[in-house]
Design goal:
Blueprint (H helix, E strand, L loop, with lengths): L1 H29 L5 E2 L10 E3 L4 E6 L19 H24 L3 E6 L6 H12 L2
Bound molecules: zinc ion.
Amino acid sequence: MASIDRAENMRRIRSKDSKPELAVRRLLFSLGYRYRLHARKLPGNPDIVFPSRRKVIFVHGCFWHGHLDCARSHVPQTNQAYWGEKIGRNMERDENSQRKLAEAGWQSLIVWECSTRDMDRLKESLIKFLGD
Ligand SMILES: [Zn+2]
């Protein structure tokens, strides 16, 4: 059944994302920001939610979410069409979620997996996005 496959697939994607997501959460916490996790009622089920600021953060794996011009998003030579289509669908879904969030008055920030390697820079962009 297609819908079950997709749910299973999304779970796998999420578990792939969990390590960078934890790094972002730890950083946010150390900066004094408080948040909620996985607001299932919001479009795209954002990873980190700041209800009073009406802001959300998605932590995206570079491969699964098609980070442009990123070494980690390189599609394997074998089954290129298969992966291309799968990742294209994810990118489309991400775009839709962000549009719906914006329409509902939510600002969103994408934190890419690869950006968690430079915590100082990530810290700056989080503070810039969230404010004081
Ligand atoms: Zn990347």
